[in-house]
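Researcher: We're reviewing a set of sequences before deciding which ones to prioritize for further study. For each one, I'd like a predicted 3D structure that I can look through quickly. This is Heterokaryon incompatibility domain-containing protein. If possible, include the structure in token form so it fits the rest of the review sheet.
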Amino acid sequence: MQTSLNECLSSHAECTRTSLPPPSRLVDVQNFRLVDSAPIGSPTWAALSYCWGGPQKAQTTSTNVKDRYESINFDDMPLTLRDAIRTCRELNLPYLWIDSMCIIQDDDDDKAREINKMPEVYQGALVTLSASCATTCHAGFLQDRLHPAPGVALPMRGAEGGYDLVQAVKWKGPVEEPIDTRAWTFQEQALSERIMDYGSQRASYFCNSSGKKHRFGMLPSPSDDLLYREWAGTVEKYSARQLTFASDRLNAVAAVASRFAEKAGLSSSDYVAGLWKPSLIRGLLWTVKSGQKRTEATSGPSFSWASHLMEVEWQSETWRRDTHQETATILEAEVKVGNTLLPFGSVSSSHITINGPLAHTTLRLSSGEARFRHDGGGEHSVELFLDKEEKIKAKSMSVWLLELLFHVGLENSMGPGSDTRFGLVLKSTGQGQFTRIGIYSEWVPQDIPVANHKPRNDVCERCKEISGTAVSKVELV
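Model: Here's the predicted structure for Heterokaryon incompatibility domain-containing protein, in token form for your review sheet.
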């Protein structure tokens, strides 16, 4: 591992170390105590990525932080943390960053301030030690590795005619380690430039030049045509991971959002509870991935994927600009964050005002088919993607359909393509606001004229086709 790290630092052009501000506190691995980084100047540190596995008795709090600047009892630390200290000593690295020790865990402002520095912590670290095989902080990661699979020795003839033996094993694909299931470790893996990965079968070194993308993924690399599709892909991967506290849904990906904004030329004012203002119409069309048990909303505005602790996804057609027309317009998007020290973190309140085709309907669900009867008479068949399981059980309900996007089907060898509308399924709060309960898609026969679906002078093609639809101003919360 030491050899791989040295080679990376000396010869990998993609892995050139960037000098970034250090975190506020570090662990001095030789004297085993906390130190402030400011007096050190430009320290070299490693960062630890690991699963807590529940509350830690050894975490730093406002009552013990002063004592920890004097000394820390090594034997009182969980095994994973002790293994990380031992590894740093072997690598001759003077400092280590551990979240449970370097952040004052019962100080909300300190937590927000230090979480906001996560990009610098992991990108600026010389290397990240990933305790991938450890299910908890007490498991450790320096134990003997399991053999990956039973194998057989096969003879192989070399280039010079001689024979040797090669060990052949059945490849079962990458092993999902405990660390790969946790939400907080997602950004730690994505942000780190170099990772020493202590897995259940082997210990491996990864960097930007040697397989990190395939093992851990990378930060989105924004480009003009893939910019927000990249972000959606990042959210899809992140949302599949688990959190102990639902309130951390946005906090645990805040560092990735911060780095994405920096690369894309955006700011925290462009960030709307996990979505981005320039792509907000399309971003609103997330769905809960099929096959999951739908649960109650947790926290955050209903229009955000962060309001559910479930895996989410976007239909691929959502991001195709060549065949899509946005039929609604964002008038206003306001967010109040929970703590101003963490501008990409959780929100205390948020609302979006949209102008678009809105229809009041009675939704009926039977035999797996969803149909709605609109106020102007007549019925239409729609495909529903609802966020909550209990809503699906209802036989009928009064809802509002807000169209956001129109997909123009392209003609092919099979004949004309099918056009599709996409929009939000909303419930009225009774106070002039609406909450999202899902999205819908509706197939449209191509003989209906769709030349211009953008609202103009409060009249749109959608409104002409369905009596009872009007371009309206809608406030989502």
